[in-house]
Records
---
Amino acid sequence: MDWLIILGLTAIAVVIIVIAVRKNDANMDKLVSEGRAAKRERTFWMQQTMFSTDTSSVDKIYSAIDKTTLHEVAISHYLEAGNCVLFTNKVAGGSFAATLKVDRQNGGKQQYTYQIDQYQGTGGYMKPKCLRAANILLTAIEKAFLQLDKDTSVSRRTVAFQTK
């Protein structure tokens, strides 16, 4: 008899998880169709994104980023010392901090690096709300670069995170 109760509770938990995943996927599909986010692998936030562009000032890039979109997903942003933009997002159960930095000049092109530096999640993964916000942030940054220089090139590499 006890096994029936356990089986019933397990079935209810599975149904709740499936509904939550489908709702999250539907929200993401809506953001993608609106152009506010991009279809990405679930581990995109573990990648460092490098931009190579003719845009020579992080101030110009910071000005071109859609701040309204960032505000809608609770992302704070700060221009620091003219060579770095700091981004933070804190929601119930999770958070992340990211930077967009002037990296170096390479063959007449300015190099910028974006990455998530810290995150709070569960089991080595970012919470869905933070993941959605991180996607929206990266999309806004990509759009800013392309708005200023349509020939901006983008490359990515995986970043190793250390957990406590």
---
Amino acid sequence: MATQTLTQPRRALRTTDAARYLGISASLLRKMRARGPDDPLGAGPPHIRLSPSLIVYDIESLDSWLDAHAQRAGGSSC
């Protein structure tokens, strides 16, 4: 009996891949995450901590975060 492998699109990205998806450096994404929601510069996109050393970003949350920032910037997009 043959085993079928189902491939589903990735729903979450690790920090390096999330940064690439957003078009920023992983270092900047880490700094944004460390700022927290009360920082006047604003926090980075929402993240999920799966373990002390594994943080992922939901792709839909990244898209929502980008949309919100594009609207604040006057709706311009690159």
---
Amino acid sequence: MLSKFVSVWVLAIGVIAIVVRMNPEIVLKLPNGFIFYAIMGHTPPPYFDMSAWHSDEMKTWIRSGDVVVSVNAKSGTNWLLYMTHLIRVKGDIETYPFTDIMLNTPWPSIVHEPGQTWSEVKEAMFSSEIQQYWNHKDYPFRVFKAHEMPETYSKDIPGATLPIKSRRDLKFVAATRNPLDQMRSFYPFFASHKAEFRRLWGDFPPVYDNKDQMMSDFLEGPFGWCLTEYNMAWFEARDEPNVHLVRFEELKEDHRGSIVDLAKFLDVELDDEQIDRITFLSSFKEMKKVAHKFDYVLFANNENPKRTIMESGKLIRSGKSGEGQSFFTEEEKSRIHKFLDANLPKDVKEWMEL
């Protein structure tokens, strides 16, 4: 009797293993399923797919003159995406309205539902319904979001995929931020994701109960690259003619001047009135008034193409510099600086003014 019982269990386990192997996304239905998904070899976040940035694949969708805004996480990504869009339309949001960050400046690295492929996202992105937002005939260039690094940095890092040297016809905008402020911004960020989105992805991203949980993810876990590899990779590429690298602090210190510099890099001529309007529209005060346009609509989600990633209006926060100094204790800051000292070269730290 016992042997029969064991045989049934072995058979059941075998069947489960086959099902999971054929459809690994099924584990995301479990509570905190993203952990099991990661154990199976899928590096978090579970909704990232960098297939779009592979050199052969890029030939199928990207074109000469396109702009890739690949900013470090929580370092001004949406701010620079919005500024880049405003520059290409010269501040004329009446003629060329900004509808949603995912529609006007698509993010090719994200899939919109478990089991989806980049090919399926691309098909939706190039549908006439969606193209009207990001591929307008009057735009001097298209804009795409990324968080990846230059392929020249290291072939061993999955996120080092952007062809800054092999595709001189493309332009890349990158930005870094003081790590204390970056982590301070991260702390409420995960909790601002919609619960239904997190459930869709096995409860990822996790909501932090305390700062120590977040610090462990950065200093010992999967997000360390945000503080190290990203900054080193783009610093190494800072002098490439098709790369525009800035620090978040510089954007804050001279907002208008940063717009002038970015427009020059993008080869867009603006008069003083247009510069003033773009500066006004991209102020955090004005962006907060349209914060719902940064909710990230999942247009390729088959169940609900109007589903969004973020709780409405939650993504645009304070945009301040220096908050990390008061947010972390002296002991916590010491831990962070010790990590940076051990993992960032001196010249990178000096450039970041750390």
